[in-house]
TrEMBL record:
Classification via SUPFAM superfamilies: NAD(P)-binding Rossmann-fold domains
Gene Ontology molecular function, alphabetical: 3-oxoacyl-[acyl-carrier-protein] reductase (NADPH) activity; NAD binding
Protein's name according to its UniProt entry: 3-oxoacyl-[acyl-carrier-protein] reductase
Residues at the catalytic site: Y154
InterPro entries in alphabetical order: 3oxo_ACP_reduc (IPR011284), KR_dom (IPR057326), NAD(P)-bd_dom_sf (IPR036291), Sc_DH/Rdtase_CS (IPR020904), SDR (IPR050259), SDR_fam (IPR002347)
Species the sequence originates in: Lentibacillus persicus
Domain of life: Bacteria
Amino acid sequence: MLSGKSALVTGASRGIGRAIALELAKQGANVAVNYAGSEDKAQAVVEEIKQFGVKSFKIQANVADEKETKAMVKEVVSEFDSVDILVNNAGINRDNLIMRMKEDEFDQVIDTNLKGVFQCIKAVSRQMMKQRGGRIINVSSVVGVSGNAGQANYTAAKAGVIGLTKSTAKEFASRNILVNAVAPGFITTDMTDELTHEQKEGMLSMIPLEKLGEPEDVARVVRFLASEDAKYITGQTINIDGGMVM
Ligand code: NAD
């Protein structure tokens, strides 16, 4: 399905990013694994990817840093000759009530989750324009649509990602660069492991499908958006949330 394509997935050493990287590789894409934290985990993902018979390498970069993202994309193009698919998955949360939220907690989340998406889009833009084609898939969140108490920083960033997706889709459409977002609901990863049992039960009670999502549920939709089957879709956000927000 994606044979001969090259992909860059940010924050791909674990969780949803890892599942997306593996899914794209399973469909034949060469995949660059961006990471910020554990090099060993990133290398383990690279080894898993190679088992699908495609090329892969890991690359450390802070998605919020202009120089690092530029260098990252340069390396992807030098290794793979193109960058056909960019998945902006890297993200953090620093939850707190607004009255208690420190400026730093707000800034860190906006930097990584919103500015990071902008930096990576900007970094691939020239190459994708030159190629006259590409797919950009941004990982937002349903709380970017619905809001969530205790997550003003995170929800503002994720709502921003939806706006950024639409503006980029309009700017890049004439070059056949399609830009979409996915908005996961409650997906079981290290990020959600931090929630208390009560918080998890509370979430579960709001999900019509009565179960939590798996990283692979998100990865399969990203794979669809990266594929030829999605060639007439741009500027959209697809909720992957078991019906939680509708
Ligand atoms: P996770 O914490 O397991 O993974 C996030 C990854 O991003 C980590 O590998 C981390 O090292 C990386 N990262 C963080 N800051 C970075 C930076 N500055 N530069 C590069 N990499 C960086 O979380 P996850 O649950 O797999 O989340 C992945 C994405 O999905 C995030 O954008 C998150 O906001 C979003 N999301 C998750 C859920 C959920 O329920 N898990 C729901 C909605 C949206």
